[in-house]
Amino acid sequence: MRAIRREPGGLKRDMSILEVTNLKKTYTTRFGGTKVEALKNVTFRVEQGEYVAIMGESGSGKTTLLNILAALDKPTGGTVFLDGQNLANIRESAVAAFRRDNLGFVFQEFNLLDTFSLEDNIYLPLVLAGRAPGEMAERLKPIAEQLGLTGLLKKYPYEVSGGQKQRAAVARALITEPRLVLADEPTGALDSKATDELLGLFSQINAGGQTILMVTHSVKAASHAGRVLFIRDGQVFHQIYRGVFTEEQMYQKISETLTLLATGGDPA
Amino acid sequence: MRKGLYPKLAVSGMKKNRRLYVPYILACVGMVMMFYIVSFLCTSETVRAMKGGDMIQNILSMGRNVIAVFSVIFLFYTNAFLMRRRKTEFGLYNILGMGKWNLARILLWESLIIAAVALAGGLAAGILFSKVGELVMVNILQTQTDYSLHVDPGSVLFTVMVFVPIFFLLLLNALRQIHLANPIALLRSENVGEKPPRANWLLAVAGLVVLGAAYWLALSIQYPLEAFMWFFVAVVMVIVGTYLLFIAGSVAFCRLLQKNKRYYYRTNHFVSVSSMIYRMKRNGAGLASICILSTMVLVMLSSTTCLYVGKETSLRNRYPRDIYMDVTFTDMELSDGPQKDQIRAAFMEVVKENGVFAEHILDYQMADMAGFLQDGRIDLDSSMSAMEQFSMGNFSGIWQVFLVSLEDYNRLMGENVTLEPGEVLMYTTRHQYEGDTIAVGDGAPMKVKMAKGFIKDGTDSMQIIPSMYLFLADPEEVLAPLNGLADFSGNKLVNYHWYYGYDMSAEDQVQIDVLRQTWDRMEGLLSGNGFEEIHMVVDGIAWERADFYGLYGGLLFLGILLGIVFLFGAVLIIYYKQVSEGYEDQSRFGIMQKVGMTKKEIRKSINSQVLTVFFLPLVTAGIHMAFAFPLIDKMLVLFSLTDVWLLIGVTAGCFLVFALFYVLVYKATSRVYYDIVSGDAAV
After folding, report:
1. Do A128 and B597 touch (CB under 8 A)?
2. Coil, helix or strand for B608?
3. Which residues of chain B lie closer than 8 angstroms to A153, CB-CB?
4. Scanning B518, B519, B553, B623, which has its CA 20 to 30 A from the CA of B125?
5. Which of B259, B265, B266 is the mutation pick for testing A, counting most A CBs within 10 A?
C-alpha cells in the first residue's frame, strides 16, 4: 500500500481530505448581464480513502464544481480545503504546480496528447515536476502492470482503443501519487465492456487507499462508489452511503433517487 | 432551390474563413498585378524607345514566364490549405442533404468571385503600379518620360488569358477533391488521427550527403567558367538536399534527441521535441520551400545589386579608355608596319577637330593565344585545338596567354623591372598560377617572377577562362617558332593585338560625336591599300554605357521584381503555416493546462517551437548563401566584376534587410497564431 501522508502532524490526520463549505458560483451571461447561479450553496466532505460519486442532471452545476475543485475556476463564495490547504490562498503562479502534485485528472475525452506515446503521456506530469528518468520508469512499472498497459506503452493514442486510452489517462493521473483523483465522466466515451473494466480498476485503486471523486450521470458508474452525492439546482440535494449494499442494490437505490429528483419529490 | 442561394453560401463561407481567404485573394491579386506590370513593361513602346530598353525587355520577358510558372505552383499550394479547412463545412452541407452537384455549384461561385476580384483588383493595381515600374526603368536607363498613365489592352488581355485558365485549373482540382471524398471523410478530414512520423534515416542521410556535396562543390570550384557550368547543378543539389533534410532529416534528428533520455525527459525539451516531430513532418516541405525561396531572393538581389552598383567598374574594365581601339593582326610582320602611324594620326585629327583634349593615351601591343597548361608548359600544338577541347567541356586546363614586351610593361605601369635571361614576368587573372617555371610551346622553361598587375584590356575582360600575361624582354624569341601555325580548321594559333585609346573630359554626347567621326575616318582609311589584313574595332564608353545600364539595370529590376514575387510567396506560406498550426495547437494547449502546465510554461514551449520552425529557414538560407558566395563571386568575374568587398557588403546588406523583413512578418503572423491558440483554449 502506498504512503498515505507525506507530512506528519496530529492535526491533519483528523482532517477530511476535501472540505467544501458553502460554495457559491455565479456567472454573468455575456449578453444581457443576467446572473446565473451555477452553485448556490454546496457543502460536503470527502474523507481519506473514500470513493465518492457526484450525480446530477446536465446543468446542475457538476462541471462547475469540478472545475473549482481542480483550481481551474474560482468560486464566488465559500471555501475549498484540500488536505487542509485553502485553495483560495494558493498563489496564481503556484496553482499549476499544486494541481500537478496533489490532483490526478481523468477526463471523458481522455485528453491524451497525440504527439506522445502512451508512456510519454503518462510521464508528462512527472517530467513537468522535474523527476529523473530512472525514477519515472520505477514508478510506472507497477502502475502499468496494474492497469494492463505494459505491452502498450510504446504505442501512440491513435493506435489503441478508447478503453486503453482511458487506462493510460488513469495511469497518468496516478503516477504523481495524488491526494485526490478527480474523474469527470470517465466512462462517458467508453463502450460497456471498457466501462466495466474501468470501473473495476477504480474500485481496485480505491481499495488500495486512493481517494477518488467522480462526477458522472451514469448510474452504473455511480453504483461502484462508496457514497453518492446528488446535486440539483446548485445544491447538494441528497446522499446515499453504500454501507453494506451490493452493487445491484446500490444501482437500485440510485435509480430510485434519480426518479425522485426528476419528478421533483423529496427523498425520505 | 432558391435562386441566389449558392452565391450567398459561397460568400458566407469565404467570410467565415476570412483569416484564410483574405490572404489568398491578396496573393491572387498580387500575382495578377506583378504579371501585368511585367508584361506591360515587356511590350511598352516607351521602354523600347529608350536606349538599352530592348535589352531590358528581353530580360523581362524571361521574368514574365518565371512569374507565370510560379503563380501556378504557388496558387495550387495555398489553395490546398483552403480546401483542407473548407472540407469540414462541405461535409456538413453534404450531411444536411446537399448533393455533390450542389457543392460543386458553391465552389463554382466561389471560384468565380475570387477570379473576378483577383483579376479586377490585380489589373487595377497593375495599371497603377506599371507607371511606377516604368519610372524606375527610366531612372535605371537615365532617360526621361512623361507622367501620364497608360493602359495596354494587349497586356490586359494576355494577363486574363494566363490567369483564367489557372483559376479554372484550381476549380477543377477542388471539384476533384469534393468528388472523391465521402461525407464522413469530408467532416473528419481535419482531425484524422495522425501516425507518429517514423524517421526515414535513408532519406535523412541522403539529404546530408547531397547538401554536403553541393557545399563541397561550391567550395572546390576554382575556375569562373566551371562556376558558371556547375552553378545550376549545385542549385539543384541544394534544393534536393534542403527538402530531404527538412522533411526527413529534422524528424530523424528529433528521434535522436528522444533516444537520449537525459535530454528528452526535461521540462523544457519534453513537449517541444515531441511536438517538433509532428510540426516538421507537416511543415517540412513548406519550410524547405520558404528556405529555397529566401535563398533565391537573396542570391538574385545580392548578385544583381552588385552588378548594378559595379556597372561603371565593369564598363571601365571592358573599355579601359573613353575611345578605345582593338586592332587584330594575324601576321607578326604587319604589327610593325607603317599603318600604325597612319591610324594614330587619324585619331588625333578627329580629336583636334572637335576641340577636345586627349589624355591617358594607351598604346601597346601584345600577342594572344589559347593553350593547355600542363606541367608548367603551355601546349598549343595538341592534337585537338584548345577551342575544341573547350567545346567538349574540358576547360579546366585552358588558359588565354598574352605576350607583352617588358618595355611596354614598364612604360604602362610606370615601373622599372629588369629580367635576367631565362626569366619571365607573369600576371594572371581569374586564377592563380602555382608553378615556378613556365614554357610556351616547345620553348625552354623560364623562371617565373610575379608582376603586381597590369592594365585592364577589353580582350581579357571578355574572357571566361583565366588569362596569363607573360612580360618578356624579347617576345619575338618565343613567338617566332609559333608564327604562322594554325589549327586544322585553319585558324591562326597566335593573334596580334594593338590597343590604342585615350580619355577625354567631355560629356557623353560629345564623346559619341567624336566616336561617330572616328568611325567614318577609319572606314575611309581601311578601304585604302595595305590595310587588308587588319581587323579593327573602335568602341566608345559613352556609346556602350546605355546598353550596359540597360543590361545590368534590367537584371536588377528583374531581380527586384522576382524578389518581391518570391517574398510574397514565402510570406504567404509562413502565414498559412502559422494559421494551420494555430488550429492544431489549440486543443493541445487546453490539455497541457489540465495536466498541470502553467500558461507561462506552455507559452514558453510553444514560443520556442514556433521560433525554431520560423527561423530555421532563414538561418539555413544564410548558410546556403555563405556557401554560394564563392560561386557567385567567381561568376561575377565573368561580368568583369572583381570587387569581393562590394559583393560581401551587398550580400550582407541584402541578408540584413531580408532578415528584418522576415522578423516583421513573424511578428505580424505570430499574433494571428496566438489569437487562434488562446481563442477557447483557456479551458
Report:
1. yes
2. helix
3. none
4. B553
5. B265
B140-179 pLDDT, tens digit each: 776 666 667 778 888 999 999 999 999 999 999 888 887 7
Query: Does pLDDT of B382 surpass 60?
Result: no
Give the separation between CA B399 and CA B678, rounded to whole angstroms: 66
In this prediction, residue B2 has a pLDDT band, given cuts at 50, 70 and 90, of low
Inform me whether the pLDDT recorded for A174 exceeds 80: yes
Torsion of CA A210, A215, A216, A217, to 10 degrees: 140
H or E element, residue B637: helix B599-638
> What burial class does residue A145 get, using C-beta atoms within 10 Å of its C-beta: 0-12 exposed, 13-18 middle, 19+ buried?
exposed
Residue A112 in contact with partner chain B when CB distance is under 8 A: yes
- Using DSSP, state whether B325 is helix, strand or coil: strand
Pick from A100, A123, A158: which is nearest to B265 by CB? Answer: A123
Strands B446-450 vs B437-440: parallel, antiparallel or unpaired? antiparallel
Residues of B in contact with A127 (CB under 8 A): 265-267, 270
Confidence class for position B335, pLDDT limits 50, 70, 90: low
B261–A133 CB contact, under 8 Å: yes
- What would the grid cell of residue B592 be? 497541457
Dist CA B488 CA B490 (whole Å)? 5
Q: What pLDDT sits at residue A9?
A: 40
3-state SS of B406-457? HHHHHHHHCCCCCCCCCEEEEEEECCCCCCCEEEECCCCCEEEEECCCCCCC
Contact state of B193 with A157 under an 8 Å Cβ cutoff: yes
The answer to whether B567 contacts chain A (CB < 8 Å) is no
Q: Do B601 and A158 touch (CB under 8 A)?
A: no
Rounded (10°) angle between helices A192-207 and A162-174 = 20
Going by C-alpha positions, the residue among B165, B170, B162 that lies closest to residue B36 is B162
Residue B514 is predicted with a pLDDT of 84
**Mean pLDDT over each residue of chain A, to the nearest integer:** 84
Average pLDDT on B595-619 reads 79
Chain A positions touching B262 (Cβ under 8 A) are 133
The model's confidence at residue B423, banded by pLDDT at 50, 70 and 90, is confident
Q: Which of residues 268-287 of B touch A (CB under 8 A)?
A: 270-271, 274-275, 277-278
Tell me which of B610 and B238 has the higher pLDDT.
B238
Please indicate whether, in this complex, the C-beta atoms of A115 and B683 are within 8 angstroms of each other: no
